[in-house]
Design goal:
It is built from 13 helices and 15 strands. It is an alpha/beta fold. It has a seven-stranded mixed sheet with strand order 4-10-9-8-7-5-6, with helices on both faces. A hairpin with a 4-residue loop joins strand 2 and strand 3. Helix 4 crosses helix 10 and helix 11 runs parallel beside helix 13. The chain is globular. The structure holds pyridoxal-5'-phosphate (PLP). The site of pyridoxal-5'-phosphate has 15 residues, from helix 5.
């Protein structure tokens, strides 16, 4: 007899640490493009993409072929022991894709958090400074340093005590919640006044669109003001493109739409279409600030993940996925705006490219996490996998594979519409 979701959940509860959360009490049997089948044979449209990892869909045939070919050659040497060409080829391609008209170099690692950790290490080595400025609502990972930078205590750092020092929190612009761009810039000036001199700050780290923080978009003028502040004070600007990268926003990196370039860019998630790969790309002179041996890791830039990433980049070209991200973004935004026009609970529809979200509020203008959570549950019952996010957990974010068909996208949006009507 095959396992049910319920029986597997019971085994999971006994065997897996409680701190590993789970949004949907489902176990997957298989998946293809934008569809998941659970162990009971139920089918779901996937609007979560494993949290922004599947811009090229589940098991893209081209990615799977590249992985299979790599598996038959070699799966691991450790790049620092015996190197392999796919690592170098991928760094060459990333150097060309990351915005910035300057010489670049790339480091490959395994997870987004590891990329952020290394970006900070590089900025510290290059500047001889230790401080970091990060934003409220920002999310950079679950390791100790990235938890210090992540601007949301519950649940990520709860119960773990104080995180490493030297991280200062600025405000992120959010007109809906009364934070203007001037307020956000002023909060950085306040850090310089109250907490640390600019000459002690190594890096300022920003997501061009906050992911976990609720798909809050940094405007191009705001990013330009951050760039100017960093230039004035010799601070390294780190763009965390772990969630925004790999075409999600309609350009391969969101910073291409911001009119300025970062000094260091972190990437992960959809870059390798479901295989664990991440990295830091940036100005060659910064990237080379650390001596041989200071960067790397046993599995960092694993050859199978590199092969997957190289295939993902080809799929982007062949299937014109950047243009698709823009069209998809228009479709999703249009549907959400139509819903918002007749539903006051949708306080805002926002995003960049196909990184689209809506923020839910109560009638008296307070964040409504209960509605968001009910919507996620009801949508699952109707065959749609959704994710919430946001500082108040009241934002529904759409991370549809860019390879999903229009029919699948409309079907998913129909489910959201039906759920909102039932929850009315
Ligand atoms: C913007 C951003 N940075 C960093 C991370 C951490 O990535 P990982 O979970 O691979 O460590 C995430 C993960 O959601 C993210 O969205």
């Amino acid at each position: 007899m095959t396992d049910s979701n319920e029986s597997l959940m019971l085994r999971r509860e006994q065997a897996v640490a409680r701190g590993v959360g789970q949004i949907h009490p489902l176990f997957i049997e298989r998946a293809e493009n934008a569809t998941i089948w659970d162990v009971q044979g139920r089918q779901y449209i996937d609007f979560a993409g494993g949290i922004a990892v599947l811009n090229t869909g589940h098991c893209h045939p081209k990615v799977i072929d590249a992985v299979k070919r790599q598996l038959e050659l070699y799966t691991h040497t450790c790049f620092q022991v015996v190197a392999y060409e796919p690592y170098v080829a991928l760094c060459e391609k990333i150097n060309a894709l990351v915005p910035g008209d300057f010489a670049k170099k790339t480091l490959l690692v395994t997870t987004g958090a590891e990329a952020l950790e290394n970006a900070v290490k590089i900025a510290r080595a290059a500047t001889g400074r230790a401080g970091v400025i990060a934003f409220a609502g920002g999310y950079h990972g679950r390791t100790m340093m990235t938890l210090a930078m992540t601007g949301k205590v519950m649940p990520y750092a709860s119960g773990m005590g104080l995180m490493p020092g030297g991280v200062f929190r600025a405000r992120f612009p959010d007109a809906l919640h009364g934070v203007s761009e001037d307020d956000a810039i002023d909060s950085i000036e306040q850090i310089f006044k109250n907490d640390a001199e600019p000459r002690d700050i190594a890096a300022l780290v920003v997501e061009p669109v906050q992911g976990e923080g609720g798909f809050r978009v940094a405007s191009a003028p705001f990013m330009q003001r951050l760039r100017a502040l960093c230039d004035l004070h010799g601070i390294v600007l780190i763009a965390d493109e772990v969630q925004t990268g790999a075409g999600r926003t309609g350009s391969f990196f969101a910073m291409q739409q911001m009119g300025v370039t970062a000094d260091l860019t972190t990437f992960a998630k959809s870059v390798a279409g479901g295989f664990p790969l991440a990295g830091v790309c940036g100005r060659a002179e910064l990237m080379d600030a650390i001596a041989p041996g200071g960067l790397g890791g046993t599995y960092a830039g694993n050859p199978v993940a590199c092969a997957a990433a190289l295939a993902v980049l080809e799929v982007f070209e062949e299937e014109n996925l950047l243009a698709r991200a823009r069209t998809l973004g228009d479709m999703l935004t249009h549907r959400l705006q139509q819903l918002a026009a007749g539903d006051k609970r949708i306080a805002e529809v926002r995003g960049l490219g196909a990184m689209v979200a809506c923020e839910l509020m109560t009638g008296d203008g307070h964040p409504d996490p209960e509605l968001a959570s009910s919507l996620v549950i009801k949508a699952r019952e109707k065959g749609l996998i959704l994710l919430s996010c946001g500082q108040y957990a009241n934002v529904i974010r759409l991370l549809v594979p860019l390879t999903a068909t229009d029919v699948e996208v409309e079907a998913g949006m129909d489910i959201i519409e039906a759920c909102l009507a039932e929850l009315g």
